[in-house]
Amino acid sequence: MTRTVPRHVPVAVIGGGQAGLSMSWHLKQAGIDHVVFEKHRAGHAWRDQRWDSFCLVTPNWQCLLPGHPYAGDDPHGFMLKDEIVAYVEDYVRSFSPPLREGLGVDRLSRLGGRFLLETAEGAITADAVVLAVGGYHTPFVPRIAERLPEGVVQIHSAAYRNPDQLPEGAVMVVGSGQSGCQIAEDLHLAGRKVHLVVGSAPRCPRVYRGRDAVDWLADLGQYDLPVSEHPLKEKVRRKANHYLTGRDGGRDIDLRRFAAEGMRLHGRLDDVAGGRIRFRDDLAQNLDAADAVYNGICALIDRHVEDNAIAAPPPSRYEPVWRPDGFQESLDPVAEGIAAIVWCTGFRPNWSWVDLPIFDGNGYPTHERGVTAMPGVFTLGLPWLWTWGSGRFVGVGRDAEYLRARIAEHLSAAELRATG
């Protein structure tokens, strides 16, 4: 939606995804004047940076944006891409936030006692700012890609849409996080010859002992566990998400089964030299580690079932259906008929437009539950901002509610200083 933006706003919310919209809902409920700035359209990432068969990996019942819980007839299903976009668009219509689409913030800095937002429509000041732009900004492709043969088409997962988009021939998918595994499956189901470069991402069961694992983990409080109480503390923010899928009603992703069906699995990418792609000898280790996490989650659920005398089907343990037979150190992509590579190597944050002293040595915003060290600057929607649910539909609203109270305190203190 298009709206005129005043030259000064009490609160500027930068980003119109689920985080920024959740923040707007809580601010509007509290009667706090604000504007949400969105460079593209609300829900841009879901609409424009996902492949055609994309769906949520968490059940629909976890879609709990503030004031807008899932209201469909399939709470244990998994929204498809277009349904996710519709959910976000319905959310916007449900409370008419002060949303300015098509207007991004090019630079954010401090100007006296206020914050200065530089936009294509001029400068705007604010008393408080919420950075609700998430942590996945710039598609990352390693420089090693520059040494691949020129005839091999290369795209990032953010640009992948479907198998027909790629030239005929085999496809190498680099990365085995959620995107990598799901794109590899998409290509595999389409009958393409797939080479998958496997990293250290863990895996999770889809259904165990008669229920979706997400349901069990929610009962166990895993989505509510704050970073401060997690065994890894701050390091958990750098952990890869577990891979599984909601496709076709939801199922495990078992890379060993894919291999038994003809997918070629490789260890991590090590180098490209002399026209050959070289791999590390860690495939077996990576598969075993992912299975150990899978079985560990099952064991956690087993203890919960036993401790609470819950009637459930008997326990089980995953046993490998395929194991690597030797180590292929390298391959020639041209000789193997590899026509394309899909880089599922994630994103890098880009906070270069924020000219404020709120970052640590790695360029990550320093904060405590979204409250940065600089009064009046808040961040929302980051993975593990506060809990595992922080970067998801299920937990972002709770974080926004907490920040609403902190923002109100900041505005009240600023008003007292101005009148004192």
TrEMBL record:
Q: What is the lineage of its organism?
A: Bacteria, Pseudomonadati, Pseudomonadota, Alphaproteobacteria, Hyphomicrobiales
- Protein name per UniProt: Putative flavoprotein involved in K+ transport
Q: Which Gene3D superfamilies match?
A: FAD/NAD(P)-binding domain (3.50.50.60)
Organism (species) = Oharaeibacter diazotrophicus
The Swiss-Prot or TrEMBL record annotates one GO molecular function as: flavin adenine dinucleotide binding
Q: Pfam families per the record?
A: Pyr_redox_3
What are the protein's UniProt keywords? Oxidoreductase
